[in-house]
Structure formats: C-alpha cells, structure tokens
Amino acid sequence: MTILIVDDDRPAVSGIVQIIDWQKIGITQVLTAYGVQEAISRLKEAHVDILLTDIEMLDGTGFDLIKWCNEHDGSYVSVILSSFPNFYYAQHAMALGVYEYLLKPIEDDVLESTIIRSIMHLKKRQDLLEPPKAGSDLLIDRIRFYIIEHISEEISRSDLASFVGLSPEYLSTYFKKETGMTLSDHIKSERIEFAKRLLRHSNLSISTISGNVGYDSLSYFSQVFRRSVGLTPREYRQKKLGERK
After folding, report:
1. How far apart are CA 64 and CA 35, in angstroms?
2. What is the C-alpha separation between 223 and 225, in angstroms, rounded?
3. Structural domain span for residue 205
4. 160 and 193, same structural domain?
5. Rounded distance, CA 30 to CA 163, Å?
6. Which of 2, 35, 5, 34 is nearest to 17 (CA)?
7. Helix (H, G, I), strand (E, B) or coil at 31
8. How many angstroms separate the Cα of 104 from the Cα of each of 67, 77, 88?
9. Which pLDDT band holds residue 133 (cuts at 50, 70, 90)?
10. Sign (positive/negative) of CA torsion 27, 106, 110, 120?
C-alpha cells in the first residue's frame, strides 16, 4: 500500500515519515508533498491508498485536495491531521467522507493506530466491492463491515440493526442462522483478531491496543484475550516476535 502525506510544514512531514515503521504496518511506499498542487501532481503519477493531509496550506486546503481525489479516484481513504479543533471543519470533513479527523499535536501511537485502522477499513471496503454476492451474503458483509468500522467503540445492537435495516431481535436471530455464531461472539472474535494484528504489526502499548479494540479495562481485555488465544497479550507478542527471528 502507498500513503501520501501532505503538509506545508516540512518538519512536520519529516517527523511523521520517521516515527512510524511503515513496512511493519503494511505500507510499502511513503510519498510526501508540501502543498495541494504538488500533492495532485503526485496523485496523477501514482495510485495512493491512504491520504494523510493537513487542512490549511499556502496554495489551498486539504478539503480541496480531498474533493479532487473523490472526483478522480474513490478507492482510497483520507485522514485529516489539523491544528484546528473547528466544528465546521469536522462537519465538512464528514461530508467529504473523511475517515478520521485528528488534531495536532498527536501522540505517535495514536497516529500509528489510526493508519492501521485506515488500512483495515480500505481492505474491508475492497472486499465488499469484489464479486457480486447473494443478498444474504451481502447483508452479512454489511454487518461485519459495521463492526470493523466501530471496533474501538461500544457496539450497540440497536445501532447495528438500524444500519442494516433490521429489528434488533431479528438481527440476532438472522446472524446466528447465517453464520452459526452469535452476534456478541462475532464482535468479540473481531476485537481479538484486530488486537492480534496490532500486537504483531505495531509497537503500540498493550493498554493502547486494549482501548483500540473496545476494551476500557486492560485487565478485562487480557482475560478475554487469554481465554480466546491461550496466551496473554504480552505472551502472544513475545511469541510472534520470536518467530520472526
């Protein structure tokens, strides 16, 4: 995957490039640009999967850039990293389909986890756009997509049911009938799989990973993880690191 980092603050761009182990999280090419027009030139030359952009730059705004991308290539994910905690900006970003609106200054691990979730979001979206499926398969995919999108949050059955157009009661029955798994067990499974990926492919602390997969309590997350995997999160990470050596 390719990421394009856009900001007219050159030290900021340099800092972002250096703080993340891009290969480790699945980014094989890191492109940079220091303004909107330079970014568009990059985008004309190469396909970009993740766009990380500031808003206010000397020759335009990140919104201008995202609009251009939306008109020319919808198969990407955009993330804004801005100094402005402005409600209008955040609202405008949502209207443009921006995946995440981050504020400077940002902790390294928060930025890294956001990029990882952006990659997962893009892959899941690509899966849904692949071959036409039967109606029931497509509905199950939409349920799974919602869960991945909200993996770091409390997932309400009523909100999920509203998203797919079913009643909460029928949603649970339907999901169990189609997959053989209860909805709550599937959500737990997705949280654990996401945690395993973060443990393998990032340097995030285990407490940060716990929050990123929807567990406020580190001790409870560790208990659930151990019951599912047979190892504590720390033991799992150490085992995977040992296998790479």
Report:
1. 11
2. 5
3. 134-245
4. yes
5. 35
6. 5
7. strand
8. 22, 19, 17
9. low
10. negative
How many alpha carbons fall within 13 Å on the CB side of residue 50?
30
Residue 218's identity, in one-letter code, is: L
Please give the structure tokens belonging to residue 219: 């001790």
Q: Residue 158 is encoded by which pair of tokens? A: 């009523």
Task: For residue 77, give the nearest of 109, 116, 45 by alpha carbon.
Answer: 116
Q: Is 60 part of a structural domain of the chain?
A: yes
**Residue type at 98 in one-letter notation:** V
Structural contact between residues 109 and 205, judged by C-beta atoms closer than 8 angstroms: yes
Per the structure, the count of domains in the chain is 2
pLDDT at position 219: 95
Beta carbons within 10 angstroms of residue 49's beta carbon: 20
User: For 229-239, what is each residue's pLDDT tens digit?
Assistant: 999 999 999 99
pLDDT, residue 223, reads 96
* Tokens matching residue 160: 């999920």
Give helix 135-149 / helix 183-201 axis angle, nearest 10°: 50
Element (H, E) at 238: helix 233-244
193 shares its domain with 103: no
Torsion of CA 227, 232, 237, 242, to 10 degrees: -100
> Which range, of 53-67, 130-144, 207-221, averages the lowest pLDDT?
130-144
CATH at residue 16: 3.40.50.2300
The answer on 139 and 236 residing in a single domain is yes
Task: Answer yes or no: do 110 and 212 share one domain.
Answer: no
